Amino acid sequence: MNKKIKKIIAREFLLLLALILLSALIFVCVFPYNSYQENRIEKINKKLIEREKLNDSLHKSVNEKIKKQEWFFEKISSEFDISNSEYSELKTLWPILQRIAENDSTEHRWNNKWEKSLIDFHKSIGFKKGKDLQIFILNNSITSKDSIQLNKSNEIQKEITELSKQKIELKNRIFQYSEKRNFIIGISAILFGILFVLRYLFYGIKWSIKELNDKNI
């Protein structure tokens, strides 16, 4: 074997070794990459927990009020036929009750205007007198402070939605085992194509041009 062939074999061996080492290096780099993405996901998880707790606390008092409003509406709508009246929905009934209570008119109506059947109904669900009903209405009406909390809650909910999207995107970036394998195979194939196939193609074209230009043939 002459010296020229030995050099060619040595060069090809080193290029093949470089290909293997580079593929192995890329494979190893996938692990810290995955770890980096997982740390980012963990930070988002912690932030999500904080924001969801805050959101729940902002909603808690309002939700309790809404539940009591719904309870009252269910009781009164099951006792009286209000389907064709202005009180047919909670969203129309409660503002009327709230306005009456805020004007200190609930107790007056109880004592002077309401029919006995209406008073007896309220007593049957726990209100002994008009003042009790008035306090119940005022305590369970949505205030301006509640509205501010709801607006803040809406902003936090948008933030939670955005964080959840980021979390999904980061999860999709993490390489699973099959993805790691396919990624390394793909990178190795590209490197092999560049180092060997394209290089040999270049050598072949160069040699062909040289042969065509050789005037001694």
Sheet/helix structural class: mainly alpha
The main sheet comes to: none
Strand content: under 5%
What are the segments in which pLDDT stays under 50 over at least 5 consecutive residues?
Answer: none
Mean pLDDT: 84
SSE ordering: HHHHHHH
Question: What fraction, in percent, of the residue positions are helical?
Answer: over 70%
Question: Cα-atom Rg, whole angstroms?
Answer: 39 Å
Number of domains: 1
Count helical runs. Answer: 7
Instruction: Indicate the overall shape.
Output: rod-shaped
Instruction: Count all strands and give the number.
Output: 0
How far from one another are the termini? 27 Å
Could you explain the architecture of this structure?
The protein has 217 residues and is mainly α. The chain has one domain. The protein is 84% helix and 0% strand. It has 7 helices and no strands. Helix 1 runs antiparallel to helix 6, helix 2 (90-102) packs across helix 5 (130-139) and helix 3 packs antiparallel against helix 5. It is rod-shaped and about 125 Å long. The model has no long low-confidence stretch (mean pLDDT 84).
Brief summary:
With 217 residues, the chain is mainly alpha-helical.
Labels describing this entry:
217 residues, mainly alpha, 7 helices, rod-shaped
Write the layout of secondary structure elements.
Elements: H1 3-79, H2 90-102, H3 106-112, H4 116-124, H5 130-139, H6 144-173, H7 177-213
Helix pairs in contact: 1-6, 1-7, 2-5, 3-5
